[in-house]
């Protein structure tokens, strides 16, 4: 029971025995989002359910991470060694793999409120079991579903500054509040079991993330070596992504607050923000070339051009690796304090007697994060932080971070005082001309990922003074040989409704939508659409009566082309600026070349005619000789022992040549 020392076990099977003895055979298991899942315990419980049909197991979670499964052929040759290198030492989350393979037993079901992007588009069972909820409501919904067991990966109680405490580290987001509420509702008739699984590879974060050991009922400390943390490799930042990130960096106000999401668009923003601070002359050069101030006045009104002398404060449900790079660059330096009166004094620049020596100033942090997930190098950097640096990061409750409601870690007054000049920056898939955003699902209702905390931050941006919601969207997407606009007239689904429209950015500029009339909104979005689709969008808007029929597209709007993107960055990229992997890469140089060739082949074979032509040209491409020796060896195609491998070699060589390698 709470208050007593937890039972420590070294065998996951014994841990499962104790859980069943405590709560019975009807188990609703809550697992943290992403990284914080206790893999040994989760696998042992799942295997027990598979072996015992009388055990009823419902797993409720989000973002169950599994390594990708490549298709046969060249993709498998390319990906298998890479997957082994990254994930070979990490035990697989067995229920998650069985979900993908439709192999769950009848007595087990899995419900998620956020999917690993795209994994379940064609999985009817998971689409039916998906729970649509805002991140701040997820804890409430977990309790309503009857969660009676929670498993959590923790950093062990070995930190001298936090004796007899575990760290929730990567996932205090929901657990901090979930543990408290479950304990409060626990009765003899409705017992719960809180299970900690220790892993020394998990960096120890204190402050809110540190909990007494006796918070838990069971602690699993296996005798086998602790497995590495599941990593998500960096994705390449295209020229278009870089321009989106650059425009977003123009909207950041010195002394402000930053939230940013995962992916290459977030990484592009981080790169341009570091550039603005560390190499401001180059950043300003591009600012002038793009005529940002003249074309998009909101940048000067809401943002800035100078380095960050006051610094930024990070307040983000996900602490992406980019926040560490902002720390290293000297950008993430604005400290906030857990006292509203003190914070207001600091904001106003007051120098009252005694303030300089106020002990509360020692409690400042530059980052509040709810969870983290990222590349291996990110975890390495977290582990290498000094004790002083780690104290500047407070991993905390998502219900503290994602909205303004009073919370036990701080009330609304404190949150408002901390989150000055908030810039809440998230990516979306599509935007309709009335300003609604599509971020997590398709028109037919299938869920791609989930809303997560996006709605929370968009709504908060409208509630805080001088805050803005910024949605970043690539202007187009390409599937096979077809390119489509991501700015569309209408769509059958939205994640962010039109009444919360604010700022939208594509690689072609910034659309300031807040408080504007529908005609102004429609035209602002058409202005930053790809020029191949502008006229069609305008005609739809005019037919609907949303834009005056006399309006003609200005000449200055009609250069939104991929060629113009290349022209904008070409000179700087020749100086090794705006690279595809500014923060490192999990792939080797040879793998990057092969990846480029495979991407070229995929594009060339997207149609039946393309497949036939590519095959014909591959047959005429020759053997490759010594030119591609290391690349062929990496793909195990240096020696061909069958017609199939001979053809794969020819196709690879064709792709390499077509990609200019």
From TrEMBL:
One of its GO terms (molecular function) is hydrolase activity. Residues 374-541 form the Acetyl-CoA hydrolase/transferase C-terminal domain. The keyword Cytoplasm does not apply. Keywords: Hydrolase. The keyword Hydrolase applies. Pfam families: AcetylCoA_hyd_C. This is Acetyl-CoA hydrolase.
């Amino acid at each position: 029971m709470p208050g007593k020392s937890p039972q420590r076990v070294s065998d996951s099977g014994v841990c499962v025995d104790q859980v069943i003895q405590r709560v019975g055979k009807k188990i609703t298991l809550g697992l943290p989002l992403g990284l914080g899942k206790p893999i040994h315990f989760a696998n042992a419980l799942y295997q027990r359910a598979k072996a015992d049909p009388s055990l009823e197991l419902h797993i409720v979670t989000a973002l169950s991470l599994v390594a990708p499964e490549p298709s046969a052929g060249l993709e498998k040759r390319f990906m298998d060694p890479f997957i082994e290198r990254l994930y070979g030492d990490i035990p697989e989350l067995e229920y998650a793999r069985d979900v993908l393979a439709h192999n769950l037993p009848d007595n087990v079901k899995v419900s998620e409120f956020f999917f690993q992007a795209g994994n379940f588009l064609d999985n009817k069972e998971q689409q039916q079991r998906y729970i649509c909820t805002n991140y701040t409501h997820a804890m409430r919904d977990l309790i309503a579903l009857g969660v009676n067991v929670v498993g959590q990966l923790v950093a062990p109680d070995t930190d001298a500054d936090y004796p007899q405490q575990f760290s929730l580290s990567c996932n205090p987001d929901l657990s901090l509040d979930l543990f408290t509420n479950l304990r409060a509702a626990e009765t003899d008739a409705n017992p719960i079991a809180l299970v900690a699984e220790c892993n020394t590879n998990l960096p120890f974060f204190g402050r809110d993330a540190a909990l007494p050991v006796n918070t838990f009922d069971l602690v699993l400390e296996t005798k086998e070596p602790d497995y590495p943390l599941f990593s998500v490799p960096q994705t390449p930042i295209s020229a278009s992504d870089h321009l989106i990130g650059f425009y977003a960096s123009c909207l950041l106000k010195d002394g402000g607050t930053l939230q940013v999401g995962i992916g290459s668009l977030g990484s592009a923003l981080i790169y341009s923000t570091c550039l603005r601070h560390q190499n401001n002359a180059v950043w300003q050069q591009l600012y002038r070339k793009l005529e940002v101030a003249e074309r998009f006045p909101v940048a000067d009104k809401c943002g800035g051009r100078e380095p960050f002398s006051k610094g930024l404060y990070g307040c983000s449900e996900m602490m992406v690796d980019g926040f560490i790079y902002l720390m290293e660059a000297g950008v993430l330096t604005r400290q906030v304090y857990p006292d509203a009166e003190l914070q207001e004094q600091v904001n106003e620049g007051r120098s009252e007697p005694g303030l300089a020596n106020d002990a509360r100033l020692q409690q400042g942090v530059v980052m509040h994060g709810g969870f983290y997930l990222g590349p291996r190098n990110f975890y390495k950097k977290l582990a290498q932080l000094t004790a002083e640096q780690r104290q500047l990061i407070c991993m905390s409750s998502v219900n503290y971070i994602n909205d303004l409601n009073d919370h036990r870690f701080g009330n609304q007054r404190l949150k408002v005082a901390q989150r000055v000049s908030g810039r809440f920056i998230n990516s979306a898939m599509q935007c309709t001309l009335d300003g609604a955003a599509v971020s997590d699902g398709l028109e037919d209702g299938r869920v791609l990922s989930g809303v997560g905390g996006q709605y929370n931050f968009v709504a908060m941006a409208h509630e805080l003074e001088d805050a803005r919601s910024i949605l970043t969207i690539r202007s187009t997407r390409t599937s096979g040989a077809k390119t489509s606009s991501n700015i569309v007239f209408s769509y059958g689904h939205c994640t962010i409704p039109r009444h919360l429209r604010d700022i939208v950015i594509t690689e072609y500029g910034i659309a300031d939508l807040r408080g504007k009339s529908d005609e102004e909104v429609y035209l602002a979005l058409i202005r930053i659409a790809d020029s191949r689709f502008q006229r069609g969008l305008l005609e739809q808007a005019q037919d609907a009566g949303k834009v005056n029929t006399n309006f003609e597209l200005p000449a200055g709007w009609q250069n939104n082309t991929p060629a113009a993107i290349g022209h904008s960055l070409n000179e700087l990229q020749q100086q090794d600026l705006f690279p595809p992997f500014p923060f490192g890469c999990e792939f080797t140089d040879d793998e990057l070349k092969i990846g480029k060739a495979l991407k070229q082949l995929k594009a060339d074979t997207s149609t039946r005619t393309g497949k036939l032509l590519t095959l014909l040209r591959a047959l005429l491409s020759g053997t490759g000789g010594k030119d591609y020796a290391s690349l062929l060896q990496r793909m195990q195609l240096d020696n061909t022992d069958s017609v199939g491998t001979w053809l794969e070699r020819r196709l690879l060589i064709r792709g390499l040549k077509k990609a200019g390698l």
